[in-house]
Amino acid sequence: MQEALSILLGEEAKGLSPAALGRLKAQWTEEHAAWQRRSLEGKRYAYWWVDGVYTNLRAEEDPRICLLVIIGVTADGKKELVSVSDGLRESKASWLEILRDLQTRGLEAAPLLAIGDGAMGFWAALDEAYPETRQQRCWVHKTANILNELPKSKQGKAKAALQEIWMAESRKAAEKALEIFVRNYQAKYPKAVAKLEKDRTELLAFYDYPAEHWRHIRTTNAIESTFATVRHRTSRTKNCVSRNSFIGLGFKMLQQAEKRWIAIFHPEKVRDLFAGVKFTDGVPANETLPGDQQDAA
Q: For residues 217, 86, 2 and 25, what is the CA-based torsion angle, rounded to 10 degrees?
């Protein structure tokens, strides 16, 4: 825990007495509780990145508990913390409690798109709380899951083939690349192909959003660096802490990281989305060419 404290307090962390540390942890817990009660009336988010953060800080009550984090993109294109709670990453109930709380505090408008790993209980909760929100599966997580079903000698070529899908300029080209992958790997590696086909729709959702945002919304990379920082700063911590200390310290570290976040590229496109502009293959639908002309171009 000392390494994490030094990030938040600097040199002062070294001289903290147990009593002073206890008061600090109590203060951070109170700050988190107050933050979790803030009003969300009138808030709108274009995108949510969602994940569960496992750290080397372990809650005494249940070592499986992790930080459940939602980061959103506001109407002006800025990234901000939406929710920081604790719970079980794979549990629908844990995530539904969070989403219901957001609604209770005034977040009536559903985010347009949520991005995350397919293994989370979040998706079932989202379908219940905000069914109109579209889903985008993270290509980094999906690629890793597919490659795990292949022998190492095949992974390099398969990774390149998967990249041909998500780097394609259009949904039609992506679908074609996906079919090629299926054809090449179905016979010998059906489990790998099944993992790809399972989330076909959710993997290609990004084509209906501005191309300027694709680098942000195809993966959860936008928040992975933050999570990596939290894990690193607790890497030397082996002891368990109380639930309140666990969530309070995690919250403060995420707040510290939030100060360094930069806005997404072309934030004006967020305003277009909120104005109801529809996008096809990354450009406004009224600017796209008919299918054959687009291919020729």
A: 130
